[in-house]
Amino acid sequence: MSEVMTGQSFADLTLPAAVLKQLEKMNFTTPTPIQIQAIPALMAGANVLGEAQTGTGKTAAFGLPGLSLVDAKLRATQMLVVAPTRELAMQVAEAVAEFGQQIRGLEVATVYGGSAFGPQIKALRGGAQVVVGTPGRLLDLLKKGVLNLSALRLAVLDEADEMLNMGFIEDIETIMAAVPNTSQRALFSATMPPAIRKLAKTFLVNEAGEQPLNIQIAAQEKAKATIRQRAWQVRGLSKMQALTRLLETLEYQRVLIFVRTRSDTMEVTEQLQASGFKASPLSGDLNQAQREQTVSQLRSGRIEILVATDVVARGLDVPEITHVVNYDLPGDTESYVHRIGRTGRAGRSGEAILFYRAKERHLLRHYERLTNGTIEYFEVPNAQELSLHRQTKLQEQIMHTVAQGKLDEMTAIVEKMQADTELTALQIATALLAQHNQQRPLLVAEDPAPRKFAERAERADRNPRERRDRNERSERPERGPRDRRDANIEFDTYRIQVGRDHGARPQDIVGAIANEGEIDSRYIGQIQLFEGHSLVELPKGLPTAVVRILQRARVRQQQMAIELAPGEIITRSKPPRGDRPRGERPPFKGAPRARGARTERGGERGSEQRRSRRPQ
Fold first, then answer.
1. What's the CA gap between 280 and 302, in Å, rounded?
2. Domain spanning 476-611: which superfamily?
3. What pLDDT, on a 0 to 100 scale, did the predictor assign at position 313?
4. CA distance linking residue 120 with residue 137, whole number of Å
5. Residue 168's Cα: distance from chain center in Å?
């Protein structure tokens, strides 16, 4: 174990001026122990074996020196990071892009399975200098000859033990075998099982036969017991519906909401503002002065809710934050410590809330071990509970207003209304209540029925064999005609402003709707493509909030602008010449194909996905 040096700053680590300038902008001043040891070693040309628990700052430990090795003028892959999950890959990519924001011409590409090859291939062929991806998709791109590692300067395996647990070891060995001997290598892992030590011994010894620098760092201090942790499983309601219900019923002072990307900060903030909440984004798009102004407004109470990404929120110290909401779970468990550490400050109590999907439940066990705490499971208020809450709050407001007195003028107005209209005071009060109800319903509509569909999907996730099969194929299971009949769903037809002219395919549309609208892909019906638009079937009674999200969602860089199309019907026979959809498959295997018009059930995957049998 290397000796840990203290009292250093990032300026002491000989990082490039552009990187130091960005770190200063991000309020990064003091490096963590693993950064103090790994950064100089990597910048000196050594290979590194990092044995570090979560919460130690590994991303910056390899990301910062990696950026110092990159030549932004060279349009070729120079830094490769292999991560176990798409979530971690996205987070690492965003962090590296944030660190390198001052480097002109730097491009960071993220590649992972369950998503179209086209945009990822375009990014690689465009010369992205930094590539972050999952093993299965990286291996596919290597085999296709798209990922060229001839100019690679640094290869990093992040969360190696997690990749071992997920069965990626053979893929990793193949990827590392393609790394040039002249490239530096780094491997980071929370634990060092024999298979990982064997991998390190094979790939981390340099050309001269020198062993890697072995860095061992203890985990950060456990999260304070004053932080209560609660988790809600995403089902029935969308995340946004659940978030607004919680914010309406919670007693909070300041709330910090964590999302995955900078664009998410804007989108979530817009929806919260539309619902009447005092929210603001905190993203990398803001300069230092704007960030300081936003934090000042949070402290003063002009803003009560801040929506931020992990990287930007590092170093944020606002004692008044009573709640942290993990709207999107972090890509790695070390970020979870940083997130919930934003609350419960100065000896105060705080609460951390997590939104998770069934397939993410295993992460919660990691969080419990890491924080030495317990995560409670809860349900967000249902429609009946929300209605009662609103009625109670209104009653309290009315009683408070009456208690304050000074209502003589208002009483005179009511008496005049009674005299002029012969209405009773009860009728006037009821009419005013009805107007209030139009703005914020006191009787909330019943929650949507799709909750049972989510529970059905959850049961499938609990089946180990089915979960393994799904991972081997892709993120979405292959579906036959029974799926839709069993669900017994009634559909509405929607029109989206994306079609064949934009290069859209049915699987692109399904991916956008499933990911952005949080709709299980098996409940997306028939899709029919035309030149300039497409038709898609979605369940009846789709919540307005979901429709608003889908209106802004993009397919092939084109905004969907989805709208209900009650007069249009998805045809299953030959359409008029000149507006004939082509290129789609029949709704299910063995179904007869209509001449000219072929429809595809949402969720069918492209041939490249069917060929892949690795988890992404």
1. 10
2. RRM (RNA recognition motif) domain (3.30.70.330)
3. 65
4. 10
5. 23
